[in-house]
């Protein structure tokens, strides 16, 4: 089944030429749309692709009705190929139903794979370059000096939230790096330094009572 897709960029443009050509090509149904070719969100094109089944053929008047860039065109035709749907452009005489057109399908598929490989190589090269400069991916590590400052502030009587704000780090970072610990009964929070001070004071009281 031949399915036509006609598109104009503005309402001032006329689709009559496209519609006449698509009907003459034997399209049993035509989806019409007014949208810029640069837009990825084209509802009527999406509807046309959803309507089509294996063995159908998408027909356009010109290649630029389907896509406005080579990358977009390659991705669109590759998607049709994987779904075993044919493609035909009337003006450029592109017809993937013919043996020559089948070869073109494979060429577009190879181009799509080539572009994916290039993107993957660029990403890997960028990561390698970043690592060579001492930079690694993921979230940045907490500043050791800021953590130390926060511990000191908490030991001096500040709450974890106040200390985190003054030190310029998040409260969750304090917990993650052990700057703040829950007390045994879970009633409050304390730092390593504060626990040490409590142990010392307890020992002193015990010694005084002996």
Short key terms for the protein model shown above:
Rossmann fold; 54% helix; elongated; two-stranded antiparallel sheet; 210 residues; alpha/beta; single chain
Overall geometric form = elongated
What is the CATH third-level topology name of the largest domain? Rossmann fold
- Classification by helices and strands: alpha/beta
Span of the ends, CA to CA: 100 Å
Total E-strand runs = 7
Strand order, largest beta sheet: 2-1-3-4-5
| Largest sheet descriptor | 5 strands, mixed
Secondary-structure element order, as H and E? Answer: EHEHEHHEEHHHHEEH
Overall domain count: 2
Strand content: 5-15%
Q: How confident overall, as mean pLDDT?
A: 77
Classified by CATH, the class of the largest domain is Alpha Beta
Estimated helix fraction: 40-55%
Indicate the CATH architecture of the largest domain: 3-Layer(aba) Sandwich
Using only CA atoms, what is the Rg? 33 Å
In the predicted model, the low-confidence regions spanning at least 5 consecutive residues are 182-198
Q: For this structure, what is the CATH homologous superfamily of the largest domain?
A: Resolvase, N-terminal catalytic domain
Number of helices: 9
Can you describe what's shown?
The chain has 210 residues and is of the alpha/beta class. The chain folds into 2 domains: 2-115, Rossmann fold; 144-197, no CATH class. Helices cover 54% and strands 13% of the residues. The strands form 2 sheets. Strands 2-1-3-4-5 form a 5-stranded mixed beta sheet, sandwiched between helices. Helix 6 runs antiparallel to helix 7. Residues 182-198 have low confidence and may be disordered.
């Amino acid at each position: 089944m031949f399915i036509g897709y006609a598109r104009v960029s503005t309402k001032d443009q006329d689709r009559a030429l496209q519609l006449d050509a698509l009907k003459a090509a034997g399209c049993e149904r035509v989806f019409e749309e007014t949208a810029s070719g640069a837009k990825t969100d084209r509802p009527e094109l999406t509807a046309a692709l959803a309507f089509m089944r294996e063995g159908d053929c998408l027909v356009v008047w010109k290649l630029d009705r389907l896509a406005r860039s080579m990358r977009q065109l390659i991705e669109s035709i590759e998607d049709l190929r994987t779904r075993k749907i044919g493609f035909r452009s009337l003006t450029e005489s592109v017809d993937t139903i013919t043996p020559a057109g089948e070869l073109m399908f494979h060429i577009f598929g190879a181009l799509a794979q080539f572009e994916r490989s290039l993107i993957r190589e660029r990403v890997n090269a960028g990561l390698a370059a970043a690592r060579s400069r001492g930079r690694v991916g993921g979230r940045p590590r907490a500043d050791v000096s800021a953590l130390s400052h926060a511990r000191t502030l908490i030991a001096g009587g500040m709450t974890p939230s106040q200390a985190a704000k003054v030190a310029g780090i998040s409260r969750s970072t304090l917990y993650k790096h052990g700057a703040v610990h829950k007390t045994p009964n879970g009633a409050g929070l304390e730092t390593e330094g504060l626990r040490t001070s409590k142990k010392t004071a307890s020992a002193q009281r015990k010694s005084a009572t002996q």
